[in-house]
Write a structure and sequence with these properties.
By secondary structure, this protein is of the alpha/beta class. It is built from eight helices and nine strands. The longest helix is centred in the N-terminal third of the chain and has 36 residues. The radius of gyration is 38 Å and the shape is elongated.
């Protein structure tokens, strides 16, 4: 049986005094904390100075809520402050078209392209970083027939049908570097072939216009370049002897078929200060790359660069050549 315990009167007084003391102690602690915080703010205020040269900080405006207005069922709702992309033919759009590397081919055989550039191109002395990057990016295997796919990155030209070839990677890089292209260059190519040379140039310059005399090759190259994402390449089926006067003058002209004479329309369409490189065939049938530069006065300077072997240029140039040999 538990015994009841009664507190005596003095004991109860001591408990009340202890509780009162604890309450007072807590109140003092609160007052001290508040006083200390306030004092720090007062002491810190005089040290804060405003720089007259600094613009005042303006708080960010609140986020604009998306409108709850009904939308078309097949049209995504417009975001706040969203700007519509410029139309491809919008005359107010001054941004140059650039290649789009979304096609799966760009992520395939990357190591092979890297070795190709290291051994075949940079290893032979080419140094233009834009050219080296373009050769690493453009998927050469996408430009060769399936029968030649395993040789896509070999150090040699490959057949593409119609008695035409895709040039050796080193020659493609060498001719591109010789033109000294920059992002503002406009290039004319004579002899589209597979479209590989045009794609390499398009990685560097603003616009490439390329002409192919074999209509089937022109159509396949046009389709291929479009699928790979090259909006800055325009392909035309026609005789490259006459160039593309509607888009002249050109900063650079590149020929990928050998001729025994230089087409006069190409010289006329070369911009002053421009450069043209093309394979030239002499009377003995020997071929070499010929570099032609035009100064600001329109005067030409020609120099041979290296011996090569290209397929012959066909069309009007052959007629003019045969007439000059009579």
């Amino acid at each position: 049986m538990l015994e009841e315990y009664e507190y005596t009167e003095p004991s109860r007084k001591r408990v009340y005094v202890l509780l009162l003391f604890l309450v007072l102690l807590a109140g003092i602690a609160i007052l001290v904390a508040f006083w200390t915080t306030g004092l720090k703010g007062v002491l810190a205020a005089p040290d804060k100075q405003t720089d007259a040269n600094l613009a005042p900080v303006v708080p960010s405006p609140p986020a604009v809520e998306r409108s709850n207005a009904p939308t078309e069922p097949n049209k995504p709702p417009a975001e706040a402050n969203e700007q519509k992309p410029a139309e491809p033919n919008d005359p107010n759009n001054k941004q140059p078209l650039r290649p789009v590397h979304k096609h799966p081919a760009f992520t395939e055989r990357v190591a092979e392209r890297a070795r190709m550039v290291d051994w075949q191109i940079e290893g032979r002395g080419l140094r233009d970083p834009n050219v080296l990057t373009a050769m690493r990016v453009v998927p050469r295997h996408a430009f060769v027939p399936e029968t030649e796919d395993r040789y896509a990155y070999a150090d040699r030209p490959l057949p593409i049908g119609y008695e035409q070839t895709i040039s050796q990677p080193y020659i493609v890089a060498f001719m591109t570097e010789t033109l000294k292209l920059d992002p503002n260059s406009t290039v004319l190519e004579i002899g589209t072939g597979s479209g590989y040379q045009a794609a390499v140039c398009a990685e560097i310059c603003r616009q490439v216009y390329t002409i192919e005399i074999v209509e089937d090759l022109a159509k396949s190259a046009m389709k291929r370049l479009k699928e790979l994402g090259y909006p800055n390449v325009s392909v035309k089926a026609g005789d490259g002897y006459f160039g593309w006067p509607e888009h002249a003058p050109f900063d650079a002209i590149i020929g990928t078929a050998a001729a025994g004479r230089i087409p006069e329309p190409l010289i006329q369409q070369l911009k002053p200060g421009g450069r043209m490189i093309l394979p030239y065939s002499d009377r003995e049938g020997l071929q070499y790359l010929l570099l032609i530069t035009k100064d600001q006065k329109g005067e030409l300077r020609k120099s041979t660069v290296m011996p090569v072997r290209f397929v012959p240029m066909t069309g009007e140039v052959q007629k003019a050549q045969s007439e000059s040999n009579k």
